[in-house]
Design a protein that fits this description.
The complex is a heterodimer. Chain A is an all-beta fold. Chain A contains no helices and 11 strands. In chain A, strands 2, 4, 5, 6, 9, 10 and 11 form a 7-stranded mixed β-sheet that branches. Chain A has a 4-stranded antiparallel β-sheet with strand order 1-3-8-7, with no helix packed on it. Chain A is globular and about 45 Å long. In chain B, the strands form 2 sheets. In chain B, strands 2, 4, 5, 9, 10 and 11 form a 6-stranded mixed β-sheet that branches. In chain B, strand 6 and strand 7 form a beta hairpin. Chain B is globular. The mean pLDDT of chain B is 94. Classes of the chains: A mainly beta, B mainly beta.
């Protein structure tokens, strides 16, 4: 299993500003991901955070808006840039591991962001 | 891309009742997982089940990959089962390009 922590747990921000969310895992993992969950909606994959190289973004998400860092195998950051009210969501960090139960995704507790 | 549907969208049960949640997907996958998001927002992995049947206590899941659907069974439901159940699928291992379904919101009444 993997234990994931995120900081901050929640924040209220003004439009036009940026927020950096941190994700820390208690063990080294190859695959780390960032998701967005808009109010009342399902989860959408933003990007795969690659250690030592640029993140891989899903369709509809760009590096200028959501820059990601992955300096090592236990840590990643997601920045939400030039925020607007439409960015109000829960942002979740996730890791993929393989074990006796097969491939398993673990999720952090999420960062609840409200943009005014 | 892969499309994922879940049914029913909402389900209300009395404590002790059984239920079946369904996930349909539009293309072949080699990774399928079921998750429970509790009322506080925490996502918990229930099953990794790209094919076959698994059981864990009161929960069990079956995936028929050739017919592109998966079922999650909840028996003797408890109030702590309330929340949203998501099915997620992908063609790669470890969650790359994972697509989540819209979820089934379950409310278990005492």
């Amino acid at each position: 299993s993997a234990v994931i922590s995120q900081k901050p747990s929640r924040d209220i921000c003004q439009r036009g500003t940026s927020l950096t969310i941190q994700c820390q895992v208690d063990s080294q993992v190859t695959m780390m991901f960032w998701y967005r969950q808009q109010p009342g909606q399902s989860l959408t994959l933003i990007a795969t955070a690659n250690q030592g190289s640029e993140a891989t973004y899903e369709s509809g998400f760009v590096i200028d808006k959501f820059p990601i860092s992955r300096p090592n195998l236990t840590f990643s950051t997601l920045t939400v840039s030039n925020m607007s009210p439409e960015d109000s969501s829960i942002y979740l960090c996730s890791v993929g591991t393989s074990g006796s139960l097969g491939e398993t995704q673990y999720f952090g507790p999420g960062t609840r962001l409200l943009v005014l | 891309g892969i499309q994922v549907e879940q049914s029913p969208p909402d389900l209300i049960l009395q404590e002790g009742a059984n239920s079946t949640l369904r996930c349909n997907f539009s293309d072949s996958v080699n990774n399928l997982q079921w998750f429970h998001q509790n009322p506080w927002g925490q996502l918990i992995n229930l099953f990794y089940i790209p094919s076959g049947t698994k059981q864990n206590g009161r929960l069990s899941a079956t995936t028929v990959a050739t017919e592109r659907y998966s079922l999650l069974y909840i028996s003797s439901s408890q109030t702590t089962d309330s929340g949203v159940y998501f099915c997620a699928v992908g063609r790669s291992n470890y969650g790359q390009n994972f697509v989540f379904g819209p979820g089934t919101r379950l409310s278990v009444l005492p």
